[in-house]
Amino acid sequence: MSAYRTVVVGTDGSESSLRAVSRAGALAGACGARLVIACAYLPTETDDREVQRVQDVLGDEAYQVVGSSPAEETVRSAGERAAAAGARQVVTVAVVGSPVEALLDVVRREQADLLVVGNRGLNSIKGRLLGSVPADATRRSDVDVLVVHTTG
Q1: From residue 3, how far is each of 34, 80, 120 by CA, in Å?
Q2: Which of 31, 71, 72, 149 could be cross-linked to 3 through a Cys-Cys bond (beta carbons 3.0 to 4.6 Å apart)?
Q3: Quick check: 33 and 89 in contact, CB under 8 A?
Q4: Which pLDDT belongs to residue 60?
Q5: Would you say the pTM of this structure is higher than 0.90?
Q6: Local structure of residue 86 (DSSP, 8 states)
Q7: What is the mean pLDDT of each run of 10 residues along the chain (152 residues)?
């Protein structure tokens, strides 16, 4: 099996997701892979009820970025963190949509062969019952998924 060529990692700007970005950056650097950092966001004109509905589904374990400017800032700072961890080729994208849908879309578009997610939400009761970003992404991904231990 050859080394990974394109790695995708998602971030919402939380410290937990940035730990996954650091791990993905180190891995991409070691493999000589391109790292694509993605942030899903809702448009600023999204109805407050829709934002609340998404947050209710994601639960306290995840954060939904609202607006393209915060999303762009999130991936910019995550890119710096990934580069500090060893990534040499970093691409950042902000994508409208829910976190899982956005990540899977980026994986397809970028023809990635690895998706990196943090484990936040996997160990909560709500995450087990309703699903979580890492669980849903792992279940639905067509490529390898690395779940990074990012929470205590």
Answers
A1: 11, 23, 26
A2: 31
A3: yes
A4: 45
A5: no
A6: T
A7: 88 91 97 96 66 49 70 96 98 93 96 92 44 83 93 70
Pairing of strands 114-118, 6-10: parallel
Count Cβ atoms within 10 A of the Cβ of residue 110 and give its class: 0-12 exposed, 13-18 middle, 19 or more buried: middle
Q: Identify any residues that bridge with 36 across adjacent strands, giving them in sequence order.
A: 8, 91
**Residue 144 maps to which CATH number?**
3.40.50.620
Quote the crossing angle between the two packed helices 99-109 and 133-140, to the nearest 10°. Answer: 40
Q: Is residue 69 part of a domain?
A: yes
Which strand (E) or helix (H) includes residue 80?
helix 68-85
Range of the domain at 29: 6-148
**Phi, psi of 122, deg, nearest 5:** -70, -30
54 Rama class: left (phi>0) / alpha (psi -120 to 50) / beta = alpha
Among candidate residues 127, 129, 115, 142, the one with its CA nearest the CA of residue 23:
115
Q: How many domains does the chain have?
A: 1
Evaluate whether residue 32 is within a structural domain: yes
